[in-house]
Amino acid sequence: MANLQALDISKTRVTTLSHLAKLEKLQVLEAQQTKVLNLRPLARLANLQQLNVSYTNVQDLSPLDRLTNLRNISFQLTRVTELSPLASLFKLQKN
Protein backbone atom coordinates (compact mmCIF):
# COMPACT_ATOMS: atom_id res chain seq x y z
CA MET A 1 0.00 0.00 0.00
CA ALA A 2 3.02 2.30 0.32
CA ASN A 3 2.93 2.90 -3.45
CA LEU A 4 -0.74 3.91 -3.51
CA GLN A 5 -1.25 7.01 -5.65
CA ALA A 6 -5.03 7.43 -5.57
CA LEU A 7 -7.64 6.62 -2.96
CA ASP A 8 -11.40 7.15 -2.86
CA ILE A 9 -13.00 6.78 0.56
CA SER A 10 -16.04 8.89 -0.30
CA LYS A 11 -19.39 8.06 1.23
CA THR A 12 -17.85 5.81 3.86
CA ARG A 13 -17.96 5.94 7.65
CA VAL A 14 -14.35 7.10 7.89
CA THR A 15 -13.83 9.58 10.71
CA THR A 16 -10.05 10.02 10.65
CA LEU A 17 -7.31 10.21 8.04
CA SER A 18 -4.55 9.21 10.45
CA HIS A 19 -3.93 5.91 8.66
CA LEU A 20 -3.07 7.80 5.48
CA ALA A 21 -0.18 9.79 6.95
CA LYS A 22 2.41 7.28 5.69
CA LEU A 23 1.12 7.14 2.12
CA GLU A 24 3.89 9.40 0.83
CA LYS A 25 3.16 8.68 -2.84
CA LEU A 26 -0.54 9.54 -2.60
CA GLN A 27 -1.50 12.07 -5.29
CA VAL A 28 -5.31 11.95 -5.24
CA LEU A 29 -7.60 11.66 -2.24
CA GLU A 30 -11.37 11.69 -2.55
CA ALA A 31 -12.92 11.88 0.92
CA GLN A 32 -16.19 13.72 0.35
CA GLN A 33 -19.27 12.83 2.35
CA THR A 34 -17.32 11.32 5.23
CA LYS A 35 -17.15 12.21 8.91
CA VAL A 36 -13.60 13.55 8.56
CA LEU A 37 -12.86 16.63 10.65
CA ASN A 38 -9.06 16.91 10.85
CA LEU A 39 -6.68 17.25 7.88
CA ARG A 40 -3.53 17.21 10.03
CA PRO A 41 -2.58 13.65 8.93
CA LEU A 42 -2.22 14.94 5.36
CA ALA A 43 0.35 17.61 6.26
CA ARG A 44 3.35 15.56 5.09
CA LEU A 45 1.86 14.14 1.91
CA ALA A 46 4.07 16.26 -0.34
CA ASN A 47 2.92 14.49 -3.52
CA LEU A 48 -0.78 15.21 -2.98
CA GLN A 49 -2.16 17.00 -6.03
CA GLN A 50 -5.92 16.61 -5.69
CA LEU A 51 -8.07 16.62 -2.56
CA ASN A 52 -11.82 16.52 -2.16
CA VAL A 53 -13.25 16.93 1.34
CA SER A 54 -16.62 18.38 0.34
CA TYR A 55 -19.59 17.63 2.57
CA THR A 56 -17.40 16.93 5.61
CA ASN A 57 -16.92 18.60 8.98
CA VAL A 58 -13.51 19.98 8.03
CA GLN A 59 -12.94 23.46 9.50
CA ASP A 60 -9.21 24.09 9.19
CA LEU A 61 -7.14 24.04 6.00
CA SER A 62 -3.88 25.06 7.70
CA PRO A 63 -2.43 21.51 7.65
CA LEU A 64 -2.34 21.87 3.84
CA ASP A 65 -0.28 25.06 3.77
CA ARG A 66 2.96 23.29 2.78
CA LEU A 67 1.52 20.91 0.18
CA THR A 68 3.06 22.80 -2.71
CA ASN A 69 2.05 20.20 -5.30
CA LEU A 70 -1.66 20.59 -4.52
CA ARG A 71 -3.43 21.62 -7.71
CA ASN A 72 -7.09 21.02 -6.96
CA ILE A 73 -8.98 21.18 -3.70
CA SER A 74 -12.73 20.92 -3.17
CA PHE A 75 -14.29 21.77 0.16
CA GLN A 76 -17.88 22.73 -0.64
CA LEU A 77 -20.32 22.59 2.25
CA THR A 78 -17.66 22.30 4.94
CA ARG A 79 -17.08 24.51 7.96
CA VAL A 80 -14.04 26.21 6.44
CA THR A 81 -14.05 29.97 6.96
CA GLU A 82 -10.37 30.86 6.54
CA LEU A 83 -8.67 30.51 3.14
CA SER A 84 -5.32 32.09 4.00
CA PRO A 85 -3.58 28.68 4.44
CA LEU A 86 -3.99 28.22 0.68
CA ALA A 87 -2.27 31.51 -0.22
CA SER A 88 1.17 29.95 -0.69
CA LEU A 89 -0.05 27.07 -2.85
CA PHE A 90 0.81 28.52 -6.24
CA LYS A 91 -0.08 25.40 -8.22
CA LEU A 92 -3.75 25.58 -7.23
CA GLN A 93 -5.94 25.93 -10.29
CA LYS A 94 -9.24 27.74 -10.64
CA ASN A 95 -12.17 25.58 -11.64
Detailed description of the structure:
- The protein has 95 residues and is mainly beta.
- The protein has one domain: Alpha-Beta Horseshoe (Leucine-rich repeat, LRR (right-handed beta-alpha superhelix)), CATH 3.80.10.
- Strands 1-2-3-4 form a four-stranded parallel sheet, with no helix packed on it.
- The N and C termini lie far apart (31 Å).
- The model has no long low-confidence stretch (mean pLDDT 95).
- How many beta-strand runs? 4
> Which architecture would the CATH scheme give at its second level?
Alpha-Beta Horseshoe
Helix content: under 10%
- Which term fits the overall shape? globular
Q: What is the helix/strand order?
A: EEEE
The structural domain count equals: 1
Q: Write out the CATH superfamily name.
A: Ribonuclease Inhibitor
Distance between the termini: 31 Å
Q: Report the portion of residues in β strands.
A: 5-15%
Secondary structure topology:
Layout: E1 6-8, E2 28-30, E3 50-52, E4 72-74
Parallel strand pairs: 1-2, 2-3, 3-4
Brief characterization of the structure:
With 95 residues, the chain is mainly beta. It has one domain: Ribonuclease Inhibitor (Leucine-rich repeat, LRR (right-handed beta-alpha superhelix)), CATH 3.80.10.
Please name the defining characteristics of this protein:
globular; four-stranded parallel sheet; Leucine-rich repeat, LRR (right-handed beta-alpha superhelix); 13% strand; 0% helix; 95 residues; mainly beta
